[in-house]
Write a structure and sequence with these properties.
CATH architecture of the largest domain: 3-Layer(aba) Sandwich
Helix content: 25-40%
Number of domains: 3
CATH class of the largest domain: Alpha Beta
EC number: 3.6.1.-
Binding site for Zn(2+): 284, 289, 291, 297
Radius of gyration: 22 Å
Largest sheet: 6 strands, mixed
Protein name: Small ribosomal subunit biogenesis GTPase RsgA
Strand order of the largest sheet: 10-9-8-11-13-12
Strand content: 15-25%
Domain EngC GTPase: 112-259
Main location: cytoplasm
Distance between the termini: 32 Å
Structural class: alpha/beta
């Protein structure tokens, strides 16, 4: 099946960005999958595999987040010996990024250039409030529009009630119950990325992301594993980030199942994910209120009258502390980089 790049979001901005690299041996494309230095890229003439060029490798040495990821728009170069190299990642409009396991506050890009990030949470066996809050902070920080998708809605008698309950954890975010088995909510989900838009799915293993991709694509494009009924957990079915073009236009990015996700300096994303707490904090008597025992604390007053749960406040405190720690680590890393000489660029353009 062939796709015109405009069906995947290629627009006037990208045409302008690519213009200075436009030459007979180069071509634009969108990364479908990146795996150990080799990228599968969709171009105007079909799908090709490309190794990373020197300039990309040098930039990635400075910042691992510069490595190409699913959803990236890139510049390819075709060589006389039939090799194809990925020479440049074009500027991203949005970026879904999580903290890696190291201690220098570097990031791993899960998806790029998506219009909507859907946090996928299964209703069975039971939604995890803290995980939803953490993933929504990540989604808000990406710059894309967040969406909360509740899968396996056929496992409860009243999915609308569950949606209302979780909606309290997602101020300003649409909540969509979906059942692929019953066909409920799939068309509405498809409406979020019609034509040339891109939807990224974010959630734990077994949440039903790959099943959603298959339903949206109208065919089996991602492997699906049966999960254990007792705890709802399953094996990781997607170990890599994968962009799937959808017939008729648009694309879905299926990210790996995430057991835990570390936040970087997602201050704005956290503030928007906890807009209710942020709004209360703005009403405190003192600007430096720690929301503990200070007089005139609007946050503690809300906990006292039941309009804010102690659990949600504790979740906000935990994530806020995590962001502060990561911000300090990032500042230290950038300071070390400024003191180190930058490696020379090897761009061939």
């Amino acid at each position: 099946m062939s796709y015109h790049l405009s069906q995947l979001g290629w627009d006037d901005r990208l045409v302008s960005e690519f213009r200075r690299f436009d030459r007979p041996d180069s071509a634009p494309g969108r990364v479908l999958r990146a795996d150990r230095g080799v990228c599968t890229v969709l171009t105007g003439s079909g799908v090709t595999r490309a190794t990373l060029g020197g300039a990309v490798m040098i930039e990635a040495a400075r910042d691992p987040a510069a490595l190409p990821s699913a959803g990236d728009w890139v510049v390819l170069r075709h060589w006389p010996d039939r090799r194809t190299t990925l020479e440049l990642v074009l500027p991203r409009t949005t970026m879904l990024i999580r903290r890696t396991a190291d201690k220098d506050s570097s990031g791993q890009v899960l998806a790029a250039n998506m219009d909507v990030v859907a946090v996928v949470e299964p209703i069975h066996p039971e939604p995890d409030d803290a995980r939803v809050e953490r993933l929504l902070a990540l989604a808000w920080e990406s710059g894309a529009d967040p969406l909360l998708v509740l899968t396996k809605s056929d496992t409860t008698r009243d999915p609308a009630a569950v949606a209302r309950q979780l909606g309290a954890l997602a101020p300003g975010v649409p909540v969509l119950p979906v059942s692929v088995r019953q066909g409920r909510g799939v068309d509405e989900l498809r409406s979020y990325f019609t034509k040339n838009r891109t939807l990224a799915l974010l959630g734990r293993s077994g949440a039903g992301k790959s099943t959603l991709v298959n339903a949206l694509a109208g065919t089996s494009v991602m492997p699906v594993q049966e999960i254990r009924d007792a705890d709802g957990k399953g094996r990781h079915t997607t170990a890599y980030r994968n962009l799937v073009p959808i017939p008729g236009g648009g694309a879905v990015i299926d990210t790996p199942g995430i057991r835990g996700v570390g936040l970087l300096d997602t201050g704005d994303g956290l503030a928007r994910a906890f807009a209710d707490v942020t709004d209360l904090a703005s009403r405190c008597r003192f600007d430096d209120c720690a929301h503990e025992t200070e007089p005139g604390c609007a946050v503690q007053a809300a906990v006292a009258d039941g309009s804010l749960t102690a659990r949600r406040l504790a979740s906000w405190r935990k994530l806020h502390h995590e962001v502060e720690v990561e911000s300090g680590r990032k500042s230290a890393r950038l300071s070390r980089q400024r003191r180190s000489p930058a490696p020379p660029s090897s761009s061939r353009f």
